[in-house]
Structure formats: structure tokens, C-alpha cells
Amino acid sequence: MLLSDKEMSGFTLMELLAALLITSFLAIGVAQYLAAATQVRLIMHQDTLAARTAEDLARQLAISQSPPGHLNASRCTSKPSSSSLDTLQLCRAYQKLPQLRVRSQGQQLTLSWQGPTGTREVQRPLF
Questions:
Q1: pLDDT in tens, 76-114
Q2: 122 in Cβ contact with 57 (< 8 Å)
């Protein structure tokens, strides 16, 4: 029994090209979604770490009555000083937040760093 031409024909070239085009658009869409989700997760992680660090520093500065001007990266590389400040959270922030700067303006403690979308900043009141 011989098959007719209609039964032997499968997908046409245009149908295959359309399916390939749709598949590639879907793959590009998924890749863009994953890239955006990764960037949002990094921003949220950095914001959370900075807020936690700022609150911890504000609380410790209120307890120790130390000026915030001496809080820099050198406190993380040198031997622990006789200061009563626990700098573990600060050192973790210096490792994870690029170009972290800690400064005090009046009764505000400000942490600023270079995030994936530009300079970011967190402010917390000093007690």
C-alpha cells in the first residue's frame, strides 16, 4: 500500500521556522526575567544588610558614646581595639557592600555604597 503525498507531508518549512521563532522569543524572555530577578535579589540583600548594619551601629554608638567618625574599613583589618564596639556586622558590611562609606550628619547615621543601579543610601537616627 503506497501512501499518498498528503499523508507523507509533515510540517512545512514555514511552520518549523515559526515554531523556532516563538521558542527563541520565549527563551529570551525567560533569560531577561532571570537577570532582572537576580538584580532585584542583590539590591534587596544589600539594602537589608545596610539597614541592619546602620541600626546595629546606631545602637552601639548610643551605648558606648563613641563618635561615629572612626568607623572605617581599617577596624576590620587591624587587631581588635579596646573599643567597646562590636564591629562584626560592620566588617561584614564592608565585605559585601562595594565602596561603603559610614558618616554621621547631626543626629543621622548614613551608610552609602555603590549598588548595581547606582549609589544607594540608608539613614538611621542616632539615639
A1: 665 555 455 677 888 888 888 899 888 887 788 889 999
A2: no
